[in-house]
């Protein structure tokens, strides 16, 4: 393909991306395919001869799109958002064109240096203590990893090395393997699955501790668990606290947890994968009170900061702990500027790394801090609008305080009602929500995800939820009334209808 043909191809692709974005509202958020659908449609082997790009692009719409879950649809309310914006998409094109593998400074100085700068910009935007920033006189700094899972795991490995060194100093007679076998990590039973996985990968038991009624891990619970372990001769090593849990967006009490970690010299990592982005707005920073105690902190800009997957920013106060854990040297990796600026290969698991900071830089510059704050605040406002709809309908309850973009709600009564609601919504494919747990209650999680989401979209999603609930309750009451005699069917149907009408009226009032 020559350059002029590439330009035509690229322009047509950009047009396609713009059309796709424009038509997202009219597509079902969930696809209507069964496992294995694609292998029935595509050839069994790669083509021997070159094909026309026009055909390839056409096949994206014909074969790929029918199997896509549209994470950027305004009716996608599942999981947490996936970052997406035009500046970020465009930056990824530039990054791919440069195609450098920036494992060390010399491997592509701009790749390392822009990452240092964007991590500092972002750290300042969040109001992180200055010890987390790159500076000429400290050991702190940020790096862009691929995922929050990697950050949690990397910090576990660094905590392990740090603890072994500490214990070795106190007890030189102990051998390293003996110490490693005694290390224990702690987190709440609400933390993301990736935290438990980090324990498995790092061969360190990860205690999943109980939480209070707000799903928050408290200091006393942590202290008791650690003391129990120490009495058994085990060594507390690593704590992962979450700011914005996946299930209910709960916030662990890092003021309390942090003081305990400091007292026992234990590495405290904060997983703020989703909620961390909100701290660019000063009014949400109270949620990270206790940040001064923290060793490492992570925010996925690929979640709630308009930056395409993957980009998970992680800061540490003591980058030496990472370097001591991860550096393996070879002659072909050395260069004469070593030590003057991070060689990020020593802060991460893989050797190779992409030029991810470009997309964060484009996003920060093209939105500006104010534009990004507006985006966060608007999503929170939309979540509160949805909350108002739910509260206006007597058939539902809100289970946890709505703080950011997640609303946890349920149909009053048995868990099966909410389960059925989620199943029906999934089968109809128009809006997508998933389940969470609030203590023993099953909840539907409604997250404002898409940057395209507007008030009208929230109303459309709510209408779908409301009308499906009416059908579920009608079916349930019909079944019950068959058991109890026909008359009650009419009474119950009338009651359901009146609740439905009341909810509709309330919705009109709110709008
Ligand atoms: N932590 C929290 C609180 C999350 O909600 C998630 C994913 O939703 C993760 C970690 C995992 O993120 P990643 O896919 O970047 O590893």
What do these coordinates show?
One of its GO terms (molecular function) is aromatic-L-amino-acid decarboxylase activity. This is Aromatic-L-amino-acid decarboxylase. Its cofactor is pyridoxal 5'-phosphate. By secondary structure, the protein is an alpha/beta fold. The chain has a domain at 100-354: 3-Layer(aba) Sandwich (Aspartate Aminotransferase, domain 2), CATH 3.40.640. It has helices spanning 3-22, 37-41, 53-64, 86-98, 109-126, 148-170, 176-180, 193-201, 219-231, 254-264, 301-304, 319-326, 357-391, 415-428, 455-484, 486-510; strands spanning 141-145, 183-188, 206-209, 235-242, 267-271, 296-300, 312-316, 396-398, 406-411, 434-438, 441-447. The strands form two sheets. The chain has a seven-stranded mixed β-sheet with strand order 1-7-6-5-4-2-3, with helices on both faces. Strands 8-9-11-10 form a four-stranded antiparallel β-sheet. Strand 10 (434-438) and strand 11 form a beta hairpin. Helix 6 (148-170) crosses helix 8 (193-201), helix 6 crosses helix 12 (319-326) and helix 14 (415-428) crosses helix 15 (455-484). The structure holds pyridoxal-5'-phosphate. Pyridoxal-5'-phosphate (PLP) binds at residues 79-80, 147-149, 192, 194, 242, 244-246, 271, 273-274, 300, 312.
């Amino acid at each position: 393909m020559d350059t002029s043909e590439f330009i035509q191809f690229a322009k047509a692709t950009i047009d396609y991306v713009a059309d796709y974005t424009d038509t997202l509202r009219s597509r079902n958020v969930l696809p209507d395919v069964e496992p294995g659908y694609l292998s029935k449609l595509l050839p069994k082997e790669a083509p021997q001869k070159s094909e026309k790009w026009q055909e390839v692009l056409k096949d994206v719409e014909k074969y790929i799109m029918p199997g896509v879950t549209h994470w950027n649809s305004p009716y996608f309310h599942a999981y947490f958002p996936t970052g997406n914006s035009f500046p970020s998409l465009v930056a990824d094109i530039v990054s791919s064109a440069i195609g450098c593998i920036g494992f060390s400074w010399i491997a592509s100085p701009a790749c390392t240096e822009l990452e240092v700068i964007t991590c500092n910009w972002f750290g300042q935007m969040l109001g992180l203590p200055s010890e987390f920033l790159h500076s000429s006189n400290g050991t702190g700094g940020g790096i862009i990893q691929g995922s929050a899972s990697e950050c949690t795991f990397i910090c576990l490995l660094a905590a392990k090395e740090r603890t072994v060194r500490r214990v070795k100093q106190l007890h030189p007679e102990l051998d390293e393997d003996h110490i490693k076998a005694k290390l224990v990590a702690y987190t709440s039973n609400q933390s993301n699955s990736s935290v438990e996985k980090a324990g498995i990968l790092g061969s360190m038991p990860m205690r999943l501790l109980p939480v209070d009624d707000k799903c928050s891990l408290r200091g006393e619970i942590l202290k008791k668990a650690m003391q129990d372990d120490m009495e058994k001769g085990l060594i507390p090593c690593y704590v992962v606290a979450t700011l914005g849990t996946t299930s209910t967006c709960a916030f662990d009490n890092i003021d309390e947890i942090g003081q305990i970690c400091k007292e026992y010299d234990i590495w405290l990592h904060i997983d703020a994968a989703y909620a961390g982005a909100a701290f660019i707005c000063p009014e949400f920073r109270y949620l990270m009170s206790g940040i001064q105690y923290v060793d490492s902190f992570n925010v996925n800009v690929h979640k709630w900061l308009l930056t395409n997957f993957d980009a998970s920013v992680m800061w540490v106060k003591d980058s030496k702990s990472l370097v001591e854990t991860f550096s393996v040297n070879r002659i072909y990796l050395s260069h004469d500027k070593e030590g003057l600026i991070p060689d990020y290969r020593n802060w991460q698991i893989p050797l190779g790394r992409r030029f991810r900071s470009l997309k964060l830089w484009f996003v920060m510059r093209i939105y500006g801090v104010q534009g990004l704050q507006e985006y966060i605040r608007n999503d929170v406002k939309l979540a509160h609008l949805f909350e108002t709809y739910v509260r206006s309908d007597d058939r539902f309850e809100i289970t946890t305080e709505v703080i950011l973009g997640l609303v946890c709600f349920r149909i009053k009564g048995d868990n099966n009602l909410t389960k059925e609601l989620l199943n029906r919504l999934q089968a109809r494919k128009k809006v997508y929500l998933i389940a969470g747990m609030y203590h023993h209650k099953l909840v539907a999680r409604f997250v404002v995800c898409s940057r395209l989401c507007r008030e009208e979209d929230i109303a459309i999603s709510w209408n779908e939820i409301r009308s499906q609930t009416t059908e579920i309750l009608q079916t349930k009451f019909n079944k019950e009334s068959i058991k109890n005699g026909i008359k009650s069917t009419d009474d119950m149907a009338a009651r359901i209808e009146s609740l439905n009408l009341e909810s509709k009226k309330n919705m009109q009032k709110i709008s």
